[in-house]
Amino acid sequence: MKKKALLEEAKKRVCAQSVMDAEDDNIVSVLDRLYDEAHTHSKIIAYLLDVPISNDKKESFLSLFLKRIDVPAEYLSAKKWTIYRERTFDEGRIDFVLESSEYVVAIEMKLGAGDGSHQLERYDRFCRSRHKKYGLYYLTIGGYEPSEQSVGGIDVN
């Protein structure tokens, strides 16, 4: 068990160092908002996801994003996707929920904070309660995995 804890700590330190190394390389860090998830990162992402398709029929950021996260092709053509930022439900608050008539995407963003108690397990229950196909995503700067207690009994594949 001690080896696993040491590996987790090393992973966190590598992530923190990669964030520090990248701080000077983006507009968010120049504005001194690198760790401001709720007021900076999520607002920018929500804006981009909600921009309507242009008149010249180019793909929207939303459609490109949905493809990038491997939403199955049959759900990409939905006429309407609703974007929720900081979506509250009985068991918590999800950073982003993107929802069409047949598919739900839930996204948890982490910028250095730890996972809440059974956080992803609760978000999985929310998605299942929508009675649609769904995807649950964990978005981090360093690409690290959620904690075991957060995942609980859900299948993460």
List descriptors:
157 residues; alpha+beta; 7 helices; four-stranded mixed β-sheet
Please report the distance between the alpha carbons of the first and last residues: 24 Å
Number of separate strands: 4
Helix content: 40-55%
Beta-sheet strand percentage? Answer: 15-25%
Class from secondary-structure proportions? alpha+beta
Strand order of the largest sheet: 1-2-3-4
**Biggest sheet record:** 4 strands, mixed
How would you characterize the overall build of this protein?
The protein is an alpha+beta fold and 157 residues long. It has seven helices and four strands; from the N terminus they run αααααβββαβα. It has helices spanning 2-22, 27-30, 37-50, 61-68, 73-76, 119-129, 148-151, and strands at residues 82-89, 92-99, 103-110, 133-140. Strands 1-2-3-4 form a four-stranded mixed beta sheet. Strand 2 and strand 3 (103-110) form a beta hairpin. The two termini are 24 Å apart. The model has no long low-confidence stretch (mean pLDDT 80).
